[in-house]
Specification:
Elements: H1 2-20, E1 24-32, H2 49-61, H3 79-83, H4 85-91, H5 96-104, E2 108-116, E3 119-127
Antiparallel strand pairs: 1-2, 2-3
Length: 128
């Protein structure tokens, strides 16, 4: 019995750093990915979900082209944070179904931003 307690205590101590470094939800918004969000500023068709979501945020924050269902977010108001969108999606998640709907349609999406403080590390994207 003392050995079992020691093993459990050891496992608990090993898990503490992981719990302390767990990412927190630092932001969330909803956006309608309209047809104009599927093209960059030069008129070139975008081919990845991350680039379409990034263009939506550039349209919203930089160009003032907002769709009626778009919500504000403070995180992607930063050009640097928008530039990290692809990496953040790679570190986060979106199902193949969600990615296909973004690339081939004009869905309303919900984006959850995870990280620490004001540093975002990943996003989770779902279709509403």
């Amino acid at each position: 019995m003392p050995r079992l307690i020691a093993l459990l205590l050891g496992a608990f101590v090993l898990l503490l750093p992981a719990a302390a470094s767990a990412q927190q939800l630092i932001g969330q918004y909803r956006a309608y990915l309209s047809e104009r969000d599927h093209f960059n500023s030069s008129g070139v068709r975008l081919r990845s979900a991350a680039s379409i979501i990034r263009q939506d945020r550039a349209n919203y924050h930089r160009f003032g082209r907002r769709d009626s269902a778009d919500q504000d977010d403070t995180f992607f108001a930063s050009k640097t944070n928008r530039a990290n969108m692809e990496r953040m999606l790679e570190n986060g998640s979106a199902s193949r179904h969600v990615l296909n709907r973004i690339i081939n349609g004009t869905p309303i999406i919900v984006v959850k931003i995870y990280g620490h403080g004001t540093h975002g590390t990943s996003i989770v994207v779902d279709v509403q």
